[in-house]
Known about the structure:
Number of strands: 11
CATH architecture of one domain: Alpha Horseshoe
CATH class of one domain: Mainly Alpha
Largest sheet: 4 strands, mixed
Number of helices: 12
CATH superfamily of one domain: Tetratricopeptide repeat domain
Radius of gyration: 28 Å
Oligomer: single chain
Amino acid sequence: MALVPSLRVFTFDQLRIFKQDTEVDLSKTKSRKARDLLRYMIVYRRKSVPNEVLCEMFWPGMDYEFAKSNLHSTMYLVKRLLGSNVILSTDSGYIFDPNNEVWVDADEFERIIELAESKDISDEQKISLIEKALDIYKGDFMKENLYEDWVLPHKESYKEMYINALVKLSTIYLAIGDISKAIEKAKIAFREDPFNEIACMTMMKAYTRWGKHTEAIKVYKQLCKLLKKELDIEPSGDLTKLYNDIVSGKYDQRWIIVVESVAEQNSDINAVAKKIGFLLRNNDNIKLFSKQKLGIYLEGTPKSTAENILSRIKEYLKNFADIRIKIDRAR
């Protein structure tokens, strides 16, 4: 069993620090400057920050010796909160967690995102990793100091990673046929970045496969309006083509594979449905018409894909002489 780090730092949304299982009460120090200094050191964790940089950041324009004295006394307040061994003095400044002993959620978030980008893992593993990373991201990095120059670039970087992870996850869910989750993740990404065309495209495809053409078109027009208003540009050619394909019906292709027992004696087609279930995708729908006949509905599926599914079903049921299988367009 892995040991819980003695100090855990949560930076997404509001800063929270735990010693073992006990939360550090940051309000114990009444100095706003001390709390900001702590956040600054966490942002630049494991890097030695020179005294000159800290003095100029927190006491700009003050005589250096006075500023340095203020720095040391303020850092003393910070150390009282965390313990004397978390922030150490160097020859020219201070360093937070020089031995990499403190667990920081932002570090874990980056580590998991990097693992999920590996080409050597399955979609199932990627889903598990990305979902875990998304669970860590509770909100903007260092929310209390959101617009400080020393927070903003880090905040934007983590947010971009978060949005990219959402988009990646939505496309994986779409590929494996989990339409509701594809829409759920793409919606969040689109809300966070309303100019994100990949999120928009994923939602359009997912809604169309769900038979909700109006919603797909609505998402497209929403992006078009925003692009025109804010940037005076049109959407990409790929997105426009998808829109045209949806409107013309080229993208929304519905097929039905009919499996029917032609045996003289009645046989329960339910048994066949159970046997072929593993060959189908999450959004493929089996409907029983009778004890001898069932239909498999394939939503938003290109002809080549539908024929491939048909071939797999035929191959699996080839030893059933009394089974007839055919494919047709669904209404």
